[in-house]
Structures are given as structure tokens and as C-alpha cells.
Amino acid sequence: MNTTLRAHLALLLAMILWGSSFIALKITVNEMSPMIVVFLRMAIGTVAFLVVWPWLRHGFVYQSGDWKFLLGMVLFEPCLYFLFESQALRYTSAGQAGMVTAMLPLMVAIAAYFFLGERNNLKQWFGFLIAVAGVIAMTLTGDNSAQAPNAILGNFLEFLAMVMAVGYTLLVKHLVKRYSAFVLTALQSFSGAIFYLPLALLSDWPSQISLSTMGWLLYLGLVVTLGAYGLYNFSLGFVKASTAAGYANLLPVFTLLFSMLILGERLTLIQWIAICVVFVGVYLSYERRSIIPKEVPPGITG
């Protein structure tokens, strides 16, 4: 198997892992406080990064003045990002939350237009409006269910999580010129564990944590955090950044697939049509020239 094929397989597996993380988060927040879930995930990730830190620390040489960018990065994600997303999955289904993430590349493009002076053509703006209309239609046409007791609120909270991911992406675009993606991810896990510790301590802890829930927490902290990023960064050594960015559009597809297979979620015909509208909008607004350098890690979605 040649390296290019391995890189594409690595990208595909990374998207599968990120897509499955929504299901893991949905299951765990239904069994315990979201703040406890996120803290344990961050703590597990931190321990994992401490184990491999001797191999990572050579990529970290602090440069004067970067504290404000690093602080902003961790504040956007994971601190505020997971604050919104963990709450979102209490009210909406994993599948619908995954569909909202399809808007992230478009939102980054708009933010880059205003803050970085990057230009988008009329077709891209039109595609963005179509994608937004599709997400709104998907939200409003869905009936409340056990998986989505308040889809409107949940999808809005997931949208706010995407806003945080946009801020994170713009800051990392600057920071990745100085620090490796893995070092930045390690800093996120460590900062997230500190941020969520007091929130977790103030929450009602369950009398016991089942083995299945602990398994999902380990999956989030180890497999998703380390595995997905490792696969993504490996692939970027062999494929173009625009190629890797294109795979991100598979995230909502895998999330929907896992939510139906594992959680038994079902969508109405109108919602399926709305999902198709979202993908049409994403396709129309897709920038063939990547606006994000290949070294930038994607937002920690899910």
C-alpha cells in the first residue's frame, strides 16, 4: 500500500472517529452531568499527553507575547466550545448536532472575510445562505423525541459551539506557525481539565460510573483526542490541505450513520430533504483553495 493511499485511509478513519465522538458524548451526558463528562475527558487526554510529553516537548518553545493568543485559543476551545456542545447534546440528537457542524467551514470563511480580509465570491455566499436555510429547516421540522427533547435549543447551542470553533481556528492559524499541532492539542486538554474541574466538583456526581460509560469516556479521551489528531496530522504529510479539508464534510454523514445504528435515531423525510439542502449549500460555498494552512488542526468537534 503506497503512502498516498494510507494517507487517504488515515483521513477517512479520522473523520469516522470524530463522527463517532458525538454519539459517545450523547450517551455519557445522558448518564451524568455534562461538566463531569467534559472534565473526565480532558483529564484522560491530559494524562495521555503527559505520557508522550517527552517526545512532544521539543516542539514547544514559548515566544514572548503569545500568551494572549494561547489563552484565547483554549478559552474558545475547549473551554467555551464544550460548555455549549455538552449542553446542546442534552436537548438535541447527535445526528442533528452533527449536521450543524457542516456549517463550520462556511463560518470560518465568513470570519476570515471580516477579520483576515479574505474574499469570497457570490456563489460561496449563496451557498452559505442555502446551508443555513437547510439547518434551520432540519431543526424546525423535527418533532421532539427522547433523543431530541428540545431540538431548537439544542441546535442553537451547537451553533454557538461552532462560533467558538471559528474563533479557535483563526487563532490557531496564527499559532501553528510557532507551535506544533500536537503541542497545541496537549495545551487544550490540560487547560480544559483545569477549567472544568471546579464545574465538575459543583455538579452532582453519580454514586457509581458504569463500565460502559467509563469505556466511552476513555474512548473520548484517548482514541478520539490522540487517535484522530494523529491520523489527521499523518495524512497532511502526503496530501494537500484542500484534500484534507474536503474530508471534513463527511463528519455529519458519519455522525448521522452512527446515531441511527447505535442510538436508533430516526429522521423524517422533510429532515432528509433539509440535510440534502445543507450539503448543496456546503458544496456551492466550498473554497477550492484552502484558506487554512495544512498544519492547522481542525476544531475538536464532538
Automatic annotation (TrEMBL):
Residues 7-139, 153-285 form the EamA domain. Pfam families: EamA (PF00892). Belongs to the EamA transporter family. The keyword Nucleus does not apply. Keywords: Membrane, Transmembrane, Transmembrane helix. Coiled coil: none annotated. GO terms for cellular component: membrane. The keyword Transcription does not apply. It is a multi-pass membrane protein. The chain crosses the membrane at residues 36-55, 67-84, 96-115, 122-140, 152-172, 179-201, 213-232, 244-263, 269-286. This is Permease of the drug/metabolite transporter (DMT) superfamily. It is found in: Membrane. InterPro entries: AA-Vitamin_Transporters, EamA_dom, EmrE-like.
